[in-house]
UniProtKB/TrEMBL annotation:
PANTHER family cross-referenced by the UniProt entry: HELIX-TURN-HELIX TRANSCRIPTIONAL REGULATOR, ICLR FAMILY, TRANSCRIPTIONAL REGULATORY PROTEIN
Gene3D superfamilies, per the entry: 3.30.450.40, Winged helix-like DNA-binding domain superfamily/Winged helix DNA-binding domain
Pfam families per the UniProt record, alphabetical: HTH_IclR (PF09339), IclR_C (PF01614)
Record's protein name: Helix-turn-helix domain-containing protein
Domain HTH iclR-type: 1-57
Source species: Pollutimonas harenae
InterPro entries recorded: GAF-like_dom_sf (IPR029016), HTH_MetabolicPath_Reg (IPR050707), Tscrpt_reg_IclR_C (IPR014757), Tscrpt_reg_IclR_N (IPR005471), WH-like_DNA-bd_sf (IPR036388), WH_DNA-bd_sf (IPR036390)
GO MF, any single term: DNA-binding transcription factor activity
Keyword Mitochondrion among record annotations: no
Keywords: DNA-binding, Transcription, Transcription regulation
Residue ranges crossing the lipid bilayer per the database entry: none
Superkingdom, taxonomy of origin: Bacteria
GO biological process: one example: negative regulation of DNA-templated transcription
Domain spans labelled IclR-ED: 55-236
Length: 236
């Protein structure tokens, strides 16, 4: 799946085995073996006359069918990636963790790929997860932070008190801002969408290098995300 997602993230012109080794960290023999399986099942194809490979439409359709939240958010994520130039992430809550479902990569030449589909981390560590956490009631927030307290230390030495302050800041601001905890040199802005019962349903975040995220741009991006989430809310 990591190989397949990497192929899908670079659709223009495809990727060579050397490219895939660099991007995934996998050994070339492993990549050849996995590519053979993807080609045989129709999830990837060889670009004619080259030694480059790309993900097929079947691959995307299959992944989209896995979770309705991906299908709902994908057009919005692609719009945001194009408008901001940066990486856009779809994150949901799974008990006391955040789960990344999808990412879209913008055209800006320097990208911070802070997470990938399938990655889990303590709820609140990333900007999407923090936006989700801040939508919960106080007693639930405190319970989740307590359960995650030992893991939080692995993210830049974050403490439970710091996490609680980030939640309060997010509520005051109306959107989350997280920098240098999960990924050094990155700063993310996130907003959450709630369902009809006012439970957090999904979050969308935009992450870039810190230099691209002054406060004025943070507010602008948060406004873009929230505007698009308001449109999605009508489809819930």
């Amino acid at each position: 799946m990591h190989l397949l997602r990497t192929l899908r993230d670079y659709p223009d012109g495809g990727l060579s085995v050397t490219d895939l080794a660099r991007l995934t960290g996998l050994q070339r023999p492993t990549i050849y073996r996995l590519l053979a399986a993807l080609l045989e099942e129709g999830f990837a194809y060889n670009i004619g006359g080259t030694k480059r490979f790309a993900a097929s439409n079947l691959a995307e359709t299959t992944i989209l069918d896995q979770d309705p939240r991906i299908k709902l958010a994908l057009p919005t994520m692609r719009e945001l990636a194009a408008e901001t130039g940066d990486a856009v992430f779809l994150v949901v809550r799974d008990d006391n963790e955040s789960l990344s479902l999808w990412r879209e990569i913008g055209p800006y030449p320097v990208q911070i790929l802070a997470t990938f589909a399938g990655k889990r981390q303590p709820l609140g560590v990333g900007s999407g997860g923090l936006a989700l956490l801040a939508k919960l009631e106080d007693d639930e927030v405190d319970s989740i932070i307590a359960r995650n307290s030992k893991q939080l230390e692995q993210y830049g030495g974050m403490s439970s008190r710091e996490m609680r302050q980030l939640v309060d800041n997010t509520r005051t601001r109306g959107y989350s801002v997280v920098g240098n905890y999960a990924v050094r040199g990155a700063l993310g802005v996130g907003c959450a969408l709630c369902d009809k019962e006012q439970r957090p349903y999904l979050a969308i975040s935009v992450t870039a290098i810190t230099d691209r995220m002054p406060a004025t741009r943070q507010r602008k991006i948060a406004g873009l995300i929230q505007e698009k989430l308001n449109t999605l809310a009508a489809n819930l």
